[in-house]
Amino acid sequence: MTKIKPPEDRTSAIESVVHSPHVDAKSSTTSASVPDNILHAIEAINASGVLKGLKLGIANPKSLKLLDKNARYMENYQYRQLLDNIKKDGHLASTPFCHLTEAREFIVLSGNHRVKAAIDAGLESIIFLYRDDKISHSDKIAIQLSHNALVGRDDKQILSSLWAEIEDLEAKIYAGLDSDLIGACRQIPSQAAQK
Fold it and tell me: Do 102 and 178 reside in the same domain of the chain?
């Protein structure tokens, strides 16, 4: 099991932060790897209100504060696969969800393992969604738990069919299916074999 703890060298929460009512992109320290036109585009998205109460941010993952208590854990092999995928891709494939506190800290409510893996992969910046309104402690926990609990289940027949369509061994490894699930897939005849 991989236990997540905040990195020792965590920098200011406003490093590389893009627009919010509390943090102005022009006065915050931005990452040299994020061009100004990208920062301005994110500011425009946030100002438009198109995200309906959410905002888009970009920051060095080290500047985000990971949860002290997270009920969700990953087995070591799962975390290693997540880390390998992020290293291969050079970015996160899904966005973490944060809350910007009045103390100007981004607390990661969902995506702690992705943020930790981004740090371990050496990513200089990641995109994330966040809220900057007041949220009660209970609501923060409810958001955290809902993001972990409200997940779908795999249809074994479709999963088996999709798994059979992957021809490249590296792509099968990237998919991250564990050996029990792969075994279950092998037990289900693929649709191609049934024709």
Answer: no
